[in-house]
Design a protein that fits this description.
By secondary structure, the chain is mainly alpha-helical. The protein has one domain. The chain is 62% helix and 11% strand. The protein contains four helices and three strands; from the N terminus they run E-H-H-E-E-H-H. The protein has a three-stranded mixed sheet. Strand 2 and strand 3 form a beta hairpin. Helix 1 runs antiparallel to helix 2, helix 1 packs parallel to helix 3 and helix 3 packs antiparallel against helix 4. The protein is elongated. 23% of the residues are buried. About 9% of the residues have low confidence. It comes from Mola mola (Ocean sunfish). It is a multi-pass membrane protein. This is Golgi apparatus membrane protein TVP23 homolog.
Length: 205
């Protein structure tokens, strides 16, 4: 498994306009993305908890939960992570069958576009909701409710995949950026040393 980190330096992610306006830290710049970041995952949990009360039909409840979980996985992976915290991850398989985990972070000069309110919403929803599915897995096993076991495991896997991907993206991306900064500084120092050695007329002493 190969890990690849990159910083978006050439163009802004997500089709945003490249402006220099720094928003207030408490302001939510992407209310729709923030809403759906929490809507699908909390709705799946609520449907699971209330399905016996709202509907006695197992198949209908199961399909509804799976659809909500699928929508949540796609939204968090492709939309809310990019807009709310400037991170993106994906996995691709090359021609040799080798799996590559790809991580991308918004360039440093544009990270001021992320507000603390959006970041808190993103990470709170990303971390708290998988905990519920862990509880559901154990409760399903202990109550011998085997028919729900596949559903709760699916919920845990999908939400845990996003959590794992974004945590690795954030931690690994920061390490990658520090490495890039060190390499850049080293290159600049070497260039200055070479210029000094050549002298004003370009003659090497």
């Amino acid at each position: 498994c190969v890990l690849c980190f990159q910083d978006s330096l050439d163009a802004p992610l997500f089709g945003e306009d490249d402006d220099n306006i720094s928003p207030k830290k408490s302001r939510i710049r992407h209310p729709v993305a923030s809403f759906f970041h929490l809507f699908f995952r909390t709705s799946a949990i609520l449907v699971y908890l209330l399905c016996e009360i709202l509907s006695g039909r197992f198949v209908a409840s199961m399909v509804t939960i799976i659809l909500l979980l699928s929508c949540d996985f796609w939204t968090v992976k492709n939309v809310s992570g990019r807009l709310l915290v400037g991170l993106r991850w994906w996995n691709q398989v090359d021609e040799d069958g080798k799996s590559h985990w790809m991580f991308e972070s918004r360039r440093v000069s544009r990270k001021s576009l992320n507000t603390s309110a959006e970041s808190q919403i993103f990470w709170l929803g990303l971390i708290v909701c998988p905990v519920f599915w862990v509880v559901f897995v154990f409760s399903t096993i202990f109550s011998f409710s085997i028919k729900w076991l596949a559903v709760v495991i699916l919920g845990l896997v999908l939400q845990w995949a996003n959590l794992y991907g974004y945590v690795r993206c954030k931690v690994g991306g920061q390490a990658s950026l520090r490495s890039m900064a060190k390499n850049y500084i080293s290159v600049q120092i070497l260039k200055k040393v070479e210029l000094k050695q050549r002298g004003p007329a370009g003659v090497v002493f």
